[in-house]
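Objective 1b: paired records.
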Amino acid sequence: MTAAGKSHKPRLEFNLDWITRPVFGLLLAGAAIGSTIGGGPWFALFISLMVIAAAREYHRMVRRHSYLFSFAITALTTVAMLYAPLILGAAPGLVLIPWAILAAGVAINLVGAFVSDERPLWEGLGPLYLCIPAFSATLIRAEPRGIWIIVGVFIAIWATDTGALVAGNLIGGRKLAPVISPNKTWSGTLGGVLAAAVVEAIFLFAIKGNVLLGFLYGAAIAVFAHGGDLFESWMKRKFQRKDSGSLIPGHGGVLDRIDSTLSATAAAAVLVFIVHLDPLFGALP
């Protein structure tokens, strides 16, 4: 009892999400790891299915009327872009074909939006927002040690989500961006960064890489993951949506589940292919 004679309400209260969220999270994680190990075509299939489901939610959110045309274009763009290198090979003359497919998808959605008096910039953004990270993941997976790099990215993202959820609930405190996402706190954000850094350091230790650099890399991935989460929260606020969908129990929509993965994977691809960073930091698994 407090001095005023009233008891405080406990911060943590059990609800069904405590069961459904980890169960479906583990199922998705198992599918992600299994497809990563299974090989390029299986990995592209898993990524395609996730992105197609997210594309449906994205175009349904940003369009005023029927979203089927733009959704179909983004879905086809995703499949064609991800499978083109697997079907055509990696010859130098063919390297631009996936990007040409992406440009075509963006152009078609832009024209379709203008014709139907929709939101052309948002319609054109759809393939860019979803397909570039998806294609980035397949490019990383195709690298000589790509399986381990992808696993490292995935576990950093999952640790970010888990650390943010636990720290935010246990500590609470000041809101990170109350206008954009009222439930996100500074404690949750920093908890997610710390969790990703520690888990990535443990991963690098296990495969005999540089632990300190792994710690810093995990923290960086977490920052980009948080950024992707905030961007999707801003979109939902702009288009007056609480969740992007309800396909995954305990998580909301597929886009709600992969928003941080989109940004973190794209960032990892920039580090690998443009900065030429070795995310395994000397490990030779």
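Objective 1b, second protein:
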Amino acid sequence: MIYLIIITLVMLLFLVLNFIIPHIAKTLWKRRFLNRVQKSGKIFLTFDDGPDPINTLRILDLLKKYNIKATFFVIGENALNYNELIGRMVAEEHKICLHGNNHLHPWKVFPWQAMYDLNRCKKILISYGIRNKYARPPFGKLNIFTMFYFWFSHLIFVHWNIDSLDYKRTDSKQLGEWLKQRIEVGKIILLHDGRRAGTSAGEITVEGLKIFFNDCRFDSQVFSALP
């Protein structure tokens, strides 16, 4: 009986340390960050899971055409494989930020694995001369190790207040119309230039953005990369 009690207490302690405390920290950081976004007078387009040799290239072409700056939360392995796209992002003054090396879910691996995954991505970006204060952990989740990694590295947790769910959509026209209806000043939008297994085709995002930009009611200067 005593062993069962000890095991239960250990499991409860792990639950509190690895899930509940990081979730509280994330909620506080998220609230503070989104308050700044809402007061910014800007629109922030953010792209996760790239770079991708086809879709990121097409998105960069669109952003250049409309003179819009954006923020890319890149996967470290993709950054290594497609370093020419990283170079173009830098040259065209987009912001490049951390999103992990292999997109590990912080709750589905050992806590230190998720921290190492973020740090590996950081080192890859540093090797390209890219140093910044912004990071978005995979799935927008933290565990106890990644929470302290953010804290001690002085990273800013970047959340979103519009999730396009573009990786689930199968109709680019529907996505474009959805973006036109919901995007406004003071919003940070989650999109994906990269794709993982089991998600929809990346061209859905590209074509949806094309529809949005073709009939955009905002001046290009309203759009901004993270400062």
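The chain is about 50% helix and 10% strand. The radius of gyration is 18 Å.
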